[in-house]
Amino acid sequence: MTKEIESQILKLIATDRIEIPISSLKGKLYRGKSKLGKSIDLSELDDNYDGDRCYARIEDIDLKKSRTLRQAINEFSKRHPKYGGILEEIIKEERWVNEMHLYFGMHENARVPAKDYMQVMEDLGFTEATAQRFYPELMNITRKISKKREEERRIIV
């Protein structure tokens, strides 16, 4: 029983450590993709490019989208000033909530075994061979991107 719990906690720690650099890389990729897309100027080509290996076009599309929550509150406040003010006050009110947190971490000089990292990667859909090839590089990226994770961590359960 205790071995199973230890194994589950190690898997949680491995998952947490893998999530940090991947999340950071995802953010960099997302921002980079947006920046690259905005930098492509097709105006001299009538907003259409068709090359040997790739293509691109710009289309203006009218879309019907819902208001954001803030826009809806502002509109409600314009239409119903008295109630809009009451709504704003209700939103600003603090309230007590009960959250259960699981605190976890590693003891000093203890390490998460490579097999636990591999299992997390396999759970993400990597083949065993791919996980083995990717593991050393993932650990390098983890060390470069994230500060050393010796402090206690927590998640809401």
Give a quick set of tags describing it.
5 helices; mainly alpha; flat; 157 residues; two-stranded antiparallel sheet; single chain
Describe what this molecule looks like in 3D.
By secondary structure, this protein is mainly alpha-helical. The protein has a domain at 1-22 and 100-157. The chain contains 5 helices and 4 strands. The protein has helices spanning 2-39, 69-79, 81-92, 114-123, 128-145, and strands spanning 48-50, 55-57, 101-104, 153-156. The strands form 2 sheets. A two-stranded antiparallel ribbon has the order 1-2. It has a two-stranded antiparallel sheet with strand order 3-4. Helix 1 (2-39) packs across helix 4 (114-123) and helix 2 (69-79) runs antiparallel to helix 3 (81-92). The longest helix has 38 residues, at 2-39. The mean pLDDT is 89.
Radius of gyration: 24 Å
Number of E-state strands: 4
Quaternary structure of the protein: single chain
Task: Give the count of helical stretches.
Answer: 5
Helix content: 55-70%
| Major β-sheet strand ordering | 1-2
The run of helices and strands is: HEEHHEHHE
Strand content of the residues, in percent?
5-15%
Rounded to the nearest angstrom, the distance between the terminal CA atoms is 20 Å
Mean pLDDT: 89
**Ranges with pLDDT <50 over ≥5 residues?**
none
Taking the sheet with the most strands, its summary is: 2 strands, antiparallel
Helix and strand composition category: mainly alpha
Shape: flat
